[in-house]
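The freezer alarm interrupted the setup, so I double-checked each line after restarting. Inputs confirmed:
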Amino acid sequence: MTAPLLDVAGLDVRYGPSQALFGVSVAVEPGSVLAVLGVNGAGKSTFARAVSGLVAPAAGRITFDGQDITGLPAHRIRRLGLTYIPEGRGIFPGLSVTDNLRMAVAQEPRNVRAAAIDRAIEQFPILGNRPAQRAGSLSGGEQQMLALARAFAVSPKLIIADELSLGLAPAVTESVFQSLDEARRSGITVVLSEQFVHRALAMADSCVILTRGRVGWAGPATDAGREVLDRYLGEAEHPRPTVAAGAGD
Amino acid sequence: MLQFVIAGLVLGGIYAIASAGLVITYTSSGILNFAFGAMAFFIARFYYYLHTQESWSILAAAAVAILIAAPALGIVLYAVLFRYLKLSSPLTKVVATIGLSVALPALATIIFGTGAIQQAPGLAPEPVKVFHFIGVPVTLDQIIVYASVVVIVVAGALVLKYSDVGLKVRAMVDSTAMTDLSGTNPTAISIGVWAVSTFLAGLTGVLAAPIIGLDPINFTLLIAASFAAVIAAKLRNLPVAVGVGLLMGVATSLIQRYLPPASAWTTEIIDAVPFIVITIVLVYNLVRRGRVGETEAWGGALDRAITPQGESKLAASTSTVVETASLNFFGRYAGPLVLVALAVALPLVLGGYWVGLTAQAFAFGVIFLSWTLVTGEGGMLWLCQITFAGVGALTTSQFAGHLGWPVLASVAVGGFVALGLGALIGFLSIRLGDLYVALVTLTFGLLIENLVFTLPRFVNQGLGLTLNRPSFASSDISYSYLCLVAFVIVSLFIVNLRRSTTGLALNAARWSQAGARTSGISVVQMKVLAGATAAFIAGIGGGLLAVAQTTVSPSSFATFAGIVWFAALVTIGIRSTAAALVAALAFVMLPAISQAYLPTWTGNLLPVIFGLGAISAAKYPDGVLAEQSRRLRHLLQRVAPDALADEHFAEEVEAGVVDTEAVGMAPEVAGQLS
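Predicted 3D structure, all chains:
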């Protein structure tokens, strides 16, 4: 068995006086896909924010690619090859599409930046059509394309995608998942938290279910059967289609 | 005409540079820097020190002051202050920068030498060369201002639009968290922005010094005028801020051209230009959008999500009512009773001159209580309480002096006139965000100071107006007690209000307007009520102060003096009535002690202390007194847990009637109870 790319051990996170995560331990193998599931408020986003360095852990240890990254600021973690796409569009809404991509590659050596941006646009051609448009005025699907393009442009080792499909029309959701699948095939490790539980499990190798800030269940995605999902997710397992389509872009 | 436009562009250019400096730090860090004028003065004073006092060449002095010292000042202030402010509430941010604006000029005087300097050289060699440009004489100093504006606007636009650094700054303005996630260190960008901003402050200072002299008050006035351009830019729009700044300069100059130069009206209108601009902009925006606020102005959803709730210490600080709920009579009232006993003893143990000062101190205490109410309880940052005090003092003098009313009745009338003004301001600022309220009240104070306090009827050829004390309290000692009684009455009123339903509603409106509205509280009513009552208190305090001094000189109610008062109060504590008394005693007694017994330079140390005290609001928003008494109480609770505890309350906790967590009690205190 290879060493995990991301190893989280005993992670506690607090927001001021309230504690959001309690002793969460998760390991992600290189090249695999981990699905992080849980009802609203279970701690999925907090887990992602803590691993990416946006919020400091109160206790525990996070190792990424053999290096202890516990307590490092987000920009240092990103430079090590861990890219986090936060919930609700990981873009700068006030900047143009081009500037968004320029920001994504700003830490790369000068001579490779243009090529990285070209590559990203090649992958999502729609972005090439409107380089000067303010990103906040793109449609929800296009914004998510831009967020993914920003993530792929730097060839990360690990992508954490938080609720990528939230508020997208079904067809757009499908293409977002396809992009993640492509990323996985090119060797990028993926951690994704999703409302579409079955769609996520179909893609994932392993699965972690968070309940009230603790790991309720963890195991191979194929073992996450009906009874497990019913027990831990209940209603949330089947998001009502009207919600998904109605909140579309 | 052209001549006046060209002349106006000098002042306008200085406004433009200053507003650019204010806007960039606001957009990138959410801090509206009330100390910008003080920073400008500090650097200009340093330039004068190097160039005039130490005879450095212009180039060397300018390079060291503007290019090295100014950015260094910004970096140091970032390291010790601004980075801690980023997550604070708007109120704390304003209070801390106000503290800085009080401390910096006094610090400059201590370091570089005393006194306001009327004539300061600019960047042009003396005698300043005069050129003729299509028949209009233009000095080299003016040309340097034009050149600076052009260079800053062009270079700023190019850097922001095309360079990597500019991109990162724009990205950070959009979202700090996303910038961090993109691999760019937001702290490095913040430091850079503050360095650029203080560079602009330094440049503003050195360019303005030949025009307005090296007087800290003139500098703060200049920046107060620039605030008008910043408000027009809704705090964020850089091009609009620069444009409005330039226009205001030209407008001022054109008013001088077309209005009769000898008329008193002309100077008054010129002084009122910033206020007129602010009024037009706010009314326009209120009519168009119904509300002017800055709550959503900074950061994105992600930034708000990762900001821990209750991170702002001011928000986390619990009210005294909650803190003392578990205490018995002794624990709750020992402190205030000891303080009042000391205050009663003070006029008896002191002699002569010092007794007169205690009377003034108690009157100051009443004025300070108006902030305890409007800011401490109401959460509204009003910077014009000194103006209300001045209105109270002047009204008292008119009624008592000219109309022959009894003096205490005149004081009451003064209170009611102030109440009317307070209600008006409260009503006008209903739909404004915290920062705008601070800015509007500041400019309102300046407006009244320039338009009303300068009327010949009040100034009385610089002599002021005399007042007689009431016959039953004509001696210093009896008048002291009269003021102390007034203080205690107002204190009891505030304490009572705090515990009443109205106080609860006021507090609710303070922490969440939406929450208060949905609970059926009229936010409008609460704001007008708090503002008007506070203005009444300030007016009464001003009247009492005037009677204590037996003369009223309107110049002693200058708006900027009020900012020092405010800093003194915040240092001791803005939320407690006892703190108002301590602050007033400190504010009146310490300068007198320093004058009588200590070397002269210590006089300048006081504003520095008060300024630093206000800055420390970032850490202890409740002030020194509350912090120390809390420590004392916790110590007592540890040493003798039963001495202060209220048995009834402990029983309720045990029975589960009172949820200690819900009332915001610290777990360790709650643990001792059960």
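Quick read of the result. The longest strand of chain A covers residues 18-28.
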